[in-house]
Amino acid sequence: QVQFVESGGGLVQPGGSLRLSCAASGMIFRFFGMSWYRQAPGKQLELVATVSSSNTTTYADSVKGRFAISRDNDKNIVYLQMNNLKPEDGSVYYCNRVAGSVPIFDSWGQGTQVTVSS
Prior knowledge:
Layout lengths: L2 E5 L2 E3 L5 E8 L7 E7 L6 E6 L5 E3 L7 E6 L4 E6 L8 E9 L2 E3 L7 E5 L2
Parallel strand pairs: 2-11
Antiparallel strand pairs: 1-3, 3-8, 4-5, 4-9, 5-6, 7-8, 9-10, 9-11
């Protein structure tokens, strides 16, 4: 059974930083790409960043230059370093896996809340 446990969210002032972590289990982690998504109340799920199984990274335009996704295949963890946070980055953040270019949504974690406010 695939499971994801997201952590690292919190309340931060605009311009601040956070590092999110997502621990994956029940899958051969290194075989999959991993993505971070976010969803604000009343809004659609938004793809934030993806790191492929070969460590290629892609980002939504809204976070390019501010966020960095990385992975640790030994620990089965994917990270999202978020810098220069803006109020519009406030959301619940989730991770999930990708097979090639196809996202797999068969399991979701509880997410981690990020609030950006002064």
